[in-house]
Every structure is written in structure tokens, then in C-alpha cells.
Amino acid sequence: MPVHRPGSPTRPHRSTGSHGSRRPAVAVVLTVLSLLLAFPGAAQAAEDVPPRGSAHMGMGVVEHDGEGPMPPDSPSAAAVQTEGVDVSSHQGNVNWASLWSSGVKWAYVKATEGTYYKNTYFTQQYNGSYNVGMIRGSYHFATPDTSSGAAQADYFVNNGGGWSKDGKTLPGALDIEWNPYGNQCFGKSQAGMVSWIWDFVNRYKYRTGRYPVIYTATSWWKTCTGNYSGFATNHPLWVARYNTTPGELPAGWSFYTMWQYTSSGPIVGDHNKFNGAYDRLQALANG
């Protein structure tokens, strides 16, 4: 046992065991708290990012373009349009009979996203719309920062995005819009984005024999492709604008094929108008 000699300094007691390990943890907590106080937006930004796979058509339209009044219920005879909806896993099991009775004649169902997500309600939604008599198709939510356009086209076709000439199946649609998970243009330059879209549409055409529909919003298209006009010749345009008119279209397209006009339509899903009568919708399905 050590003996304390008078006049010699007493050594401080050093704690051992689990109590000693708390000091580094406390320091880490204090550091994190100081960073959150210095950058309060960091925590909020992380909370605002939705989980992968949850993206759906038009989720950025209200945030970026706003939402105006609904278009008139009765378009003139010179501008006959056919009502449609688009749905994703957010809608769950859809009551297709109610939609059919309300006048909805066509539907697009989210099939895939990136190369990592398949809609868990796809079968009910895709087959259910067909079974009540609707002309239906499927769409792919693009994530150009996760894999190539060709890889995502293959994933789409392999998981519900194909096409058959049965008069009831629309060509697949490429949903290319604001990135809900990060940079709005997915970190790509305008030229890089155009190349990625070409990679997707060319592969889809090779796999199915059809050119896909391109769904987008004019403001996003201008920002992220530089308002590129080269897809207009062969690819039907599905434009998103929540207002009384579709407004300005992306470069190259002189008319829209489909118009997503609201995210809060009656019964379920986003509502859309096909720019023509039902027989023209059938013609699009048949190719």
C-alpha cells in the first residue's frame, strides 16, 4: 500500500471502467449539436428527402410550377378530349369501377423506378384498369444519376413496361422530371441529360418496337435539357401543368398528346386529358 509523504503532492484520482469512456461520447454529442446550431437547414433538408421508390408523376409540379384552377369540365366539340388518370403505390388498391363510371377511359400505372424499385400494387392497378375496359399503360420514374438510360429501359420492360398490339395497351412512358432525392437535374449537364434520355428511348424502342411517351414539365425541360427539340418527331408528349391550359410546350412539340392538369382530381390519382377522342387513343395503343 503506498504511503503518502508529507509535503508531496497528492495525485488526482483517475476514474476507470465505463465512466471513463463517456467523455469521448459527450464530446461527439456536443460537436453534433454545435453543427446543427450552425447549420439548422441540414437536419431539415435530410428530413425532407423522401424514401427511394416513393417518387411519382408530378410530385415536383406543385412545388416548382404551382397549381392553378381546374380546366373547364366541358371542352368544346372542336377540342374533344378523353379523361385519364395516373397512379402509383400511393393509391394502393384502386376502385377502377368507380373511375370508369366517372368517365375515366385510360390509365397509366407506375411500374418501376431506377433499377431498384417495382410498384408493389402494380398487378392490381395494371390488370384492374384493363379489366373494367380502360386502355392502360405503364410508366417508369427516371433517376439518371443511378444508372444508364439503357439499363433503366431494360428494367422497365422486364417489370411491366412492355407493349403488345392488343388495342388496350399504350406505349410505355418515361417520367423525366424534378429529382425528389437531390439536385433537380440529377447532377447532369444539359447535354448529359439529353444523352441519357436518348439512351433510354433508343433501348425501349429496340426492346418493344414502340417509341415511348415522354412525360415532363416545360420548366424542367428548359432547365435540364436546354429546351432540346430532338425528341418531338417520334415521341408523344405528356406535359404536366396544373392550370386551365397546358401553357407553353417544350421545344419541338407543336401539340401535346396528354396533359396532366391536376394532382387532386376526383376519386383518385392525378387526372389527365388525352388530346383527342377515344378512337385516337385506340390508334395510339395500336401504334
UniProtKB/TrEMBL annotation:
Keywords: Glycosidase, Hydrolase, Signal. Residues 1-23, 47-78 are annotated as: Disordered. Its EC number is 3.2.1.17. InterPro entries: GH (IPR017853), Glyco_hydro_25 (IPR002053), Glyco_hydro_25_AS (IPR008270), Glyco_hydro_fam25_subgr (IPR018077). SMART domains: Glyco_25 (SM00641). The keyword Hydrolase applies. It catalyses: Hydrolysis of (1->4)-beta-linkages between N-acetylmuramic acid and N-acetyl-D-glucosamine residues in a peptidoglycan and between N-acetyl-D-glucosamine residues in chitodextrins. Residues 11-22 have a biased composition (Basic residues). Pfam families: Glyco_hydro_25 (PF01183). The keyword Cell inner membrane does not apply. Gene3D superfamilies: Glycosidases. Residues 1-45 form the signal peptide. Belongs to the glycosyl hydrolase 25 family. This is Lysozyme. It comes from Streptomyces cavernicola.
